Amino acid sequence: RIFEPFFTTKGEGEGTGMGLSVVHGIVKSYGGTIKAYSEPGKGSTFNVFFPVIERVVEPEAREEKPIPKGTEHILFVDDEHSLVNINKQILESLEYEVTIRTSSVEALELFKTKPGRFDLVITDMTMPKMTGDVFAQKLMAVRQDIPVIICTGFSARIDEEKAETMGIKAFVSKPILKRDIAETIRKVLDKRPGNSTT
């Protein structure tokens, strides 16, 4: 059951248990499997297996557009520590300044101290104590024009129409892919009033 979304061995309020579910989804999409070995008091080991494939001659790749970058300051919020650190590295590789928090409550308090400090907030949807949509509403109550992007895996709580009504600028599906998040960020930030970036 450890690979089921939202199943967790953590105590109440300590996390939502999405990490292993996301990993399992990625491995399964490549035809792989995960085996878990756990010993009480000592810890757990996870072995990941992928199928061997024949090497094929790749067709000549089409030239892709460069991944867009920026220098704005982003507040990134997710209760899964490992995902926060991975996504911080992704965003920093795109040259953004990044501040991270693993609690939406703490992130809101930080935002309230200097609401003009951030150009964009990226938040997970499913978090303990305060979900992403509620967090977004509270951010916009402090500063109406703050752009918010919500990351979501499994959620029937919010749809695109409801999000647009609330002022949320975009959705990104988990697991986050570098090109997807890079293009979404620029799409959102470049639409801000007074921004002439193309």
Could you explain the architecture of this structure?
With about 200 residues, the chain is of the alpha/beta class. The chain folds into 2 domains: about 1-55, no CATH class; about 75-190, Rossmann fold. About 30% of the residues lie in helices and about 20% in strands. It is built from 6 helices and 7 strands. The chain has helices at about 20-30, 80-95, 105-115, 130-140, 160-165, 180-190, and strands spanning about 35-40, 45-50, 75, 95-100, 120-125, 150, 170-175. The strands form 2 sheets. Strands 4-3-5-6-7 form a 5-stranded parallel beta sheet, with helices on both faces. Helix 3 packs parallel to helix 4 (about 130-140). It is globular. The relative contact order is 0.13.
Helix count equals 6
Helix fraction by DSSP (H/I, runs of at least 4): 25-40%
Helix/strand order: HEEEHEHEHEHEH
Q: Estimate the mean pLDDT confidence.
A: 83
The CA-CA distance between the termini, in Å, is 47 Å
Highest CATH level, the class of the largest domain? Alpha Beta
Instruction: Please tell me the CATH architecture of the largest domain by its name.
Output: 3-Layer(aba) Sandwich
Return residue spans where pLDDT drops below 50 for at least 5 consecutive residues. none
Biggest pleated sheet: 5 strands, parallel
Briefly note the structural class of the backbone: alpha/beta
Tell me the fraction of residues in β-strands, as a range. Answer: 15-25%
> What does the overall shape look like?
globular
Strand order, main sheet: write it out.
4-3-5-6-7
Output the CATH homologous superfamily of the largest domain.
Response regulator
Counted up, domains total 2
CATH topology of the largest domain: Rossmann fold
Strand tally is 7
Specify the oligomeric state. Answer: single chain
What is the rounded Rg?
19 Å
Domain Response regulatory: 73-189
GO molecular function: phosphorelay sensor kinase activity
Protein name: Response regulatory domain-containing protein
Pfam families: HATPase_c, Response_reg
